[in-house]
Amino acid sequence: MSADKPATSPSLPPTEAWQWPEEKWRDIVTRVRAGRSLKPKSWPGGARCAVALSFDSDHETQTLRWGHDSPGRLSTGQYGARVGVPRILALLEKYGIKATFFVPAVAAMLYPDEQKRVIAEGHEIGIHSWIHEFNSQLPPAAERDLQFRAAEVLEKITGVTPVGIRTPSWDFSQHTLSITREMGLLYDSSLMADDDPYELLENGEPTGIVELPVEWIRDDFPYLAMDRLGSARPYTPPSGVLEVFRREFDTAYETGGLYLLTMHPHVIGHSSRIQILEELIRHIRAHPGIWFARHDEVARYCKEQAGM
Ligand SMILES: [Zn+2]
Asked: What confidence tens digit (pLDDT) does each residue in 90-106 have?
């Protein structure tokens, strides 16, 4: 009887998510997942809140990743290196803050002196892909090869072995975590399952890798990016972005957690935006018990406190 026929014939391969057997969706969800919280009882020196500022120095790779060669578009990336990074470094120096820069290998090769300066001034440089490629679109072998080579390039230029990774556009493939484990990295900063640090699980097993979670809410890009031919427009005024960033900090402070902010030199480096970063730093510094730290320091401390 046609009325009794199931919606899907069992002979057809189940391809739609609503047709998946429980085993399949459980397997997908379990592959990379948040494990135990690594939020410490307190931060170094009895501090109440950890503040970790990060800058993703993508520069021209934001254009190259799409296979584009327009000098016009490339110039917006070059702005990040010429104007953005020097402004950021001057601001960090002014307030004595150490931060983390995530740099694609190609950007590091375009600007080796910039990377050397970043390291010389006490900041950290982390892995951020080869040319800002999307991990989830790569064959697994290519992703592995690029992640290893990207680390080698950073180490060769700076003389420091990177211990952390941020995947470009936070695009994390089914294979990224196993590559990160194979490399023996300390932390990842690409996922969003919590406000505070946690341990990553792979197929339900603890990995010892610390996740320092990010969020699009605490990223300058979605509010301030401009794409002439796409739909991205800076609809939010700098004051609006400052308000969101400040509210996010206020809760992190309130709860004794981690406040991690992601910015881009070619985005936050412009005059009207670097001003809000300075205002934010002043707002944060007006609170007692702040620990400004690089990502590697935060990850190491959390791991130590958890007895890992
Ligand atoms: Zn990036």
From this structure: 999 999 999 999 999 99
Nearest residue to 209 via CA among 177, 235, 240? 177
Q: How many angstroms is it from 9 CA to the middle of ligand 1?
A: 45
Diameter of the chain by CA atoms? 78
Distance 132 CA to ligand 1 centre (A): 6
What global pTM score does this model have? 0.94
Report the pLDDT value the prediction gives residue 11, as an integer from 0 to 100: 62
What is the three-state SS of 107-176? HHHHCHHHHHHHHHCCCEEEECCCCCCCHHHCCHHHHHHHHHHHHHHHHHHHCCCCCEECCHHHCCCCCH
Q: Are 242 and 280 in contact (CB under 8 A)?
A: yes
What are 4-53's pLDDT values in tens digits?
Answer: 444 555 566 668 999 999 999 999 999 999 999 999 999 999 999 999 99
Q: Which residues make up the environment of ion ligand 1, defined by Cβ < 5 Å?
A: 56, 58, 168
Q: How far is the CA of 245 from the centre of ligand 1 (A)?
A: 19
Ligand 1: centre distance to CA 204 (Å): 29
φ/ψ of residue 241, rounded to 5: -65, -40
Is residue 158 a contact partner of residue 119, using CB atoms and an 8 Å limit? yes
- Cα(101) to ligand 1 centroid in Å equals 10
- pLDDT, residue 129, reads 98
Task: Report which of 203, 189, 14, 26 is spatially closest to residue 102, judged by C-alpha positions.
Answer: 189
User: In angstroms, what is the span from residue 290 Cα to ligand 1's centroid?
Assistant: 27
Q: What are the structure tokens assigned to 162, written together? A: 């990177």
Q: How far is the CA of 169 from the centre of ligand 1 (A)?
A: 6
132 Cβ neighbours under 8 A, 6+ residues apart: 58, 61, 62, 64, 65, 104, 106, 168, 169
Q: How far away, in angstroms, is 55 Cα from ligand 1 center? A: 9
